[in-house]
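Researcher: Before we compare anything, I want clean individual predictions. No alignment, no superposition, just each chain on its own. First chain goes here; please echo the sequence and then give the structure tokens.
Model: Echoing the first chain and its structure:
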Amino acid sequence: MLAPLLPTQPERGGPWRDHRQVVNAICWVKRTGSPWRDLPERYGPWQTAYQRFRRWANDGTWVRLKAHVVALAELDADIDWDAQVDATIVRAHQHAAGAVKRGSRRPMRRHAKGSAGPAAG
């Protein structure tokens, strides 16, 4: 179903590893958040998956695949665009909000640095 959207084997160079295996490798890395070098051997060399991922990101293959999958899901009414986030579980660290540290009696100073160039007159 997605095979026609994937790039074809280039005329030059050796044969490509199977697209299915490489896509599974890329999905494994993205799902687990692991470094490319930690890719299990069953997916083949990590360099192959990484290079294919980068190549397809640069040539727009991932954008076409996503658009196609979304279109198929919309046709089947199998996609829900209403998303909600429960704020009780989404918390920012105190430093993200610019909070003053406990015990600090000085207010935080936020000044822009002056330019090192000559003063405008």
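Researcher: Okay. Second chain, same rules.
Model: Second chain and its structure:
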Amino acid sequence: MGKLIYSMITSLDGYVADERGDFAWGEPDEEAHRYVNELTRSVGTYLYGRRMYETMVYWETADTLPGQPPYVLDWARQWQAADKIVYSTTLDSVSSARTRLEREFDPAAVRRLKETAGHDLTVDGPGLAAHAIRAGLVDEYHQFLAPVVVGGGTRFFPDHVRLNLETVGIRQFANGWLHLRHRPKP
């Protein structure tokens, strides 16, 4: 059985993007990037909403760009080797290998996927994650806190949801980032 993990880079005030949709303030440095690579080796399937998929599809060809450092090539190859499911009512097609398009998020189908998976899964993007959180499907929450306050934008956690979580890991990085890992309390 696989775990469903929700993981994103957030500002200290809890946003994954600012009010203009910008998230450049959250670009990981080499140390954080290498850590994410190791952390996600257990992931075999990524669940994306349209906007997150459109951001992440860059990795389909990132390994062909000249001068990429080894840790970037490592992440690109990991991403390419994983399955991707994109939930969108507006996309006509997907442009990456190992990717399928679904029109709606079905909690029962995701529950079955978790039960039969021999690897972990991630739900990426706060809109799609809100559906998984409300359905009680998320097994772990990973926040990478960047030392910046953006004052508003797209929140990591959805509104009107109460979660009782236990902290199961904290890691500090030289650049001031923190990785916080939480699980729902039993």
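Researcher: What stands out in the second chain?
Model: The mean pLDDT is 96. Additionally, The first helix runs from residue 30 to 39.
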